[in-house]
# Entry
Amino acid sequence: MEDFFATNSPQQIINRIFSLDLGLLCILNIDGWFEKVNCTWEKIFGYTTAELSETNLIDYVHPDDRDATAFVFSDLLRSSHRLTFSNRFRSKDGSYRYIDWEFNCHDNYAYVAGTDITHTRLSATGLKADRRHSENRHFYSELETPCPTRQKILVVDDSPLNTKIMETALNEDYDVYISHSGKEALSICNSNDPPDLILLDIVMPEIDGYEICRRLNMGTKTKDIPIIFLTSLTDAKDIEFGLTLGAIDYITKPFSIPIMKAKIKNHLALKSYQDMLKIDTDQDQLTQIANRRCFDKTMTMEIRKAQKSRTVLSVLLLDIDHFKFYNDTYGHLEGDTCLKKVAATLTTTLKRPKDLAARWGGEEFACLLPNTDSKGAQKIAESLRAAIQNLRIPHASSPVADVVTVSVGIVSSNPLNDNSYENLLKNVDEALYQAKETGRNRIALWQEYI
# Structure
């Protein structure tokens, strides 16, 4: 062993380890920027080492998971040297894979191992979907039906005795997590594996239960987690105050175990039913790319980032030329197939993980291009236009060409101005109108930024 380390430098050892197919391995700096990845990244996600270089892990994360992932880098890694969490990571083809991450930090670097758990997560989703279709008509019987997977309860109490009592009473039916501090509880709830219900003590050191409840109800990812207060306070004003902050119920100390279990069962059954009714509201159901809601949410976030960093954000708006004629000639089923092909081409043609293609509505699509000036946006717009034309989808009734084509409007934000969401959309719509008026199957840039 000593001879091995004597004849091999640390860099040589790292290079040999990273050349092996050992699952997802990478080194990040403390802010999430890639320093080194192994060959498995290209096998699973499609990105080469060069493509990942000088990019940030957060840029590849699903929009719904970005806040929690950013919280990991902004808060958790600076206070914990070892950390595990999961999120959805974008592949080069635009699809997302569920990944379990394990972070080990040392000297401002994170040494990371990832495991692809997509198959497991999708299998669980399919089981829930089957139950949703068969049981939606039976709401009240659902309250009596055990959940297909064990639900997670977070118990937050600074008393080890209290947490032990509750853990013993509940762990036969639920996965029980224990936290003895408000800060730790907030970290768990803001992770990508949050609890299904929280039992929260009011009287806590540093951050009391009321403040924890207030913060959770202000968070986008945590506001829907039901909170039951644990308290010895029985004054009506205390109870009323907690309920106005967003708690759904109270359990008084000393605990009645049967009453506590009954309340938890009812609240979790209601939450389970509500969760089963939810659909993926960020995905267009026909084309399977981002929808208008996802686009709006991401654009709002990217505008703030561009203003803060004084960078340029470009927006593209694309319209399939004479799509009504296409539907009239080939029928709506063929029209749907055409829309799917165009959407897939937009996604695969956009190379950078932080670029977003979305279905705007009908036969219109939109693309977000962060940190892209007008010249770069024109090049990307032209490559999208050409890629769609090169699909050679027949369009015999089009006055423009004998294949499906698109017109593209382009707008780029001005770092010196306060660019609003409404103004950018208004201007890109005007640019698209110009592309159509001047002949279609072309791109047009909104003139103020030429």
Notes: The chain has three domains: 2-116, 136-277, 292-449.
